[in-house]
Amino acid sequence: MTGQRDRWAELTGGQAGEKYAQRFARLAESGQDIHGEATFCAALLKPAARILDAGCGTGRIAIRLAELGHHCTGVDVDPSMLAVARRNAPTQEWLLGDLTRLDTLGLHPGFDLVLAAGNVIPLLAPGSEPAVVRQLAVALRPGGLLVTGMGLDAAHLPLPEPPVTLTEFDHWCTGAGLTLRQRYATWSGDPYHQDCGYAVSVHTRTATT
What we know:
The chain is of the alpha/beta class.
């Protein structure tokens, strides 16, 4: 741990839950599909998979994946976000915790998929990113998938400049025993190219990790 606050807390003060939920409610009311991440993940999974939504926020993705028949646990460090998740899906498992200390939350490892969407990686505390990637990798079963989505430029981040590069991220993943399997530019599966401002990455945990 670095002792620094995560970038999300610096941006929001830990009070963004209701505002964040309202934003997606408005998008849904306007007819936009707000379930792209869940649809993407579901296509990678067998029925009734175990999923860890790391940085689950208000639970939008985990709730949808549960509706599709999967077993989802959500973890977030922001109590205001979890309050919304617990209100909307009180029977699901929602845990308050720091991703750098995921191993202290009493989770049973062996998840089929760990998801870190919504710019979770770029919004971590500076310097904590490699430790978090290791924690996420350890939570997976051998052959399990780490799925991440992150902005690579200011247009796709709530930050003036990207704090994390894909080269750095892939290096952390390699160090944690993860291998890149697929990369896309969107949750709809558009092809990735170097000038993309966003990356959806699918890494797999090697059997020897």
